[in-house]
Each structure stands twice: as C-alpha cells, then as structure tokens.
Amino acid sequence: MMPALVASDLDRTLIYSAAALALTMPDARAPRLLCVEVHESRPLSYLTETAAQLLTDLGDAAVFVPTTTRTRKQYQRINLPGPEPRYAICANGGHLLVDGVSDADWHAQVTARLADQCAPLAEVQEHLLRAADPVWVRKHRVADDLFAYLVVERELLPEDWVKELAVWAENRGWTVSLQGRKIYAVPKPLTKSAAMREVARRTGADLTLAAGDSLLDADLLLAADRGWRPGHGELADTGFTAPSIRALPERGVLAGERILTEFLGAVRGA
User: Fold this and answer.
1) Which residues, if any, are the signal sequence (predicted)?
2) Which fold is adopted by the domain 119-187?
3) pLDDT of residue 78 exceeding 70
4) Which of 1, 49, 63, 160 has an alpha carbon within 20 to 30 A of 55's alpha carbon?
5) Under CATH, what is the fold of the domain 4-111+190-269?
6) pLDDT tens digits along 68-77
7) 3-state secondary structure of 62
8) At residue 1, does pLDDT exceed 90?
C-alpha cells in the first residue's frame, strides 16, 4: 500500500503556547500537558499527553510532515514525541528539510520563483519599517531571507492597519496574515502546499491529510485530500470552509488533540 501523508501546521494547530492553551475548564479537569519546546531555558510550547500518544501512533502509521511558517532554527527547537519525521516543511515552504537538512535544489527553485513573480523582500521590509508605529511594534524580523514579520502589541494595533497593509501587499504579489502577536508579510508563491506536493511525489503518497488555523494554511488545506481546522484562528474567524475541509468546534490545546484523533482515524480507515 502507498503511504498516507499528514502535513500539519504546528503553532496553534498541534502545539500551543501558555497564552494559547484556552484551558477554560475547571482546574481539576484540565488535561495533563507535555512541554515540547524550550527557548532560552523557558518552557514555550505544549500539547496534551493524550495528543503526544496520538502523535506517536500517527508517526508509526503515516508519513508525518511538520509544516510550519517557522524558520529552520525556530523549528529545530521543537522536540515532538514519536518517530523523528524524515521530512519537514519550514519557512512556509521555503525550506524542505530531509533528515534535518535543507534540500538545496528545492530552495533554489523557490527563490527563483519568488524573484520572478513578486516584489523583492527589501521593498516590503522597507514599507513595514516606515508604516508601522514604534508605539505598538516590538520587533521587526526577516525569516530565512524569504519573508518578514512584526511582533506587535495587539491591544495597541490600529483596527484597520492590517487590512491596509494587505491591500498594499496584494498589488506586489504578497499576502498578509495576523497570527497572535505576529503580522506576517509573505510572498504569494511561497506556499506550504507546493512543498507538501513535493513530499507526496517523493514518498508516493496516495492520500494527503492536512490541518491548520491561519490564512497561511488555507492553500495547504485546499491542496490536501482532506483537511481540518480548529475552532480558533484566522480561518475560523473568517468562516473559511470547503467540501474537503472539516471545521472542528474545539479551541486551544484540545483542538490539537482532536485534530490528531481525526488524522489517525483517516489513516487507519484508508
């Protein structure tokens, strides 16, 4: 049998910061948590212990591909339970890791496509520096020389600023996504779906499954045979849906547990 491929976003889909856990139940009923990321000696990201077992089972049953907008360095801080994934998609598809090493040919193809189809990163970075107000911007960052993002104080962010940035970016072949405290500006051709298709080609997968919560995951969900989104995030806020995509009611870390349950059920039922 051909393997099933599971390409899943990580942050706020499978793993959660303390602020994103959404533990709304009484304390005594809160799930036991496993820390899967430490940064500068501080615990940063979690999933439930039940999700950890589900992810281990999934890694044994399918080709599990972590699929993230994180840079390679940020991704490598994560210590997921289960078998070490052979493939990982980082920088929103800009890097395809094979056994932990970026595939040079894939990266060259991506950078050539970006140079041909959209405005250069320097132009976008300059606009962000000029248009963003230091009152609510905490950090300006460039990720793997592929895209840019801001870390902001959400409560101070003007209501229409992101919409105005999205209009400006659209005319230059870029897209904008607001995720938690981060505002991403990403070239449109830089997609998770293209990298997922490449992994499916290499592995011969005949079933592709995906999950994600943000606008940067929309192309991934639409490209997969079946997709899931949690009850929180940009996709939920905009009511994003399609015949092959299931909107789940769970929010926070319990959504990650539910997504893994759905993945495993689909793989075992294939």
Assistant:
1) none
2) Hypothetical Protein Ta0175; Chain: A, domain 2 (3.90.1070)
3) yes
4) 1
5) Rossmann fold (3.40.50)
6) 999 999 999 9
7) coil
8) no
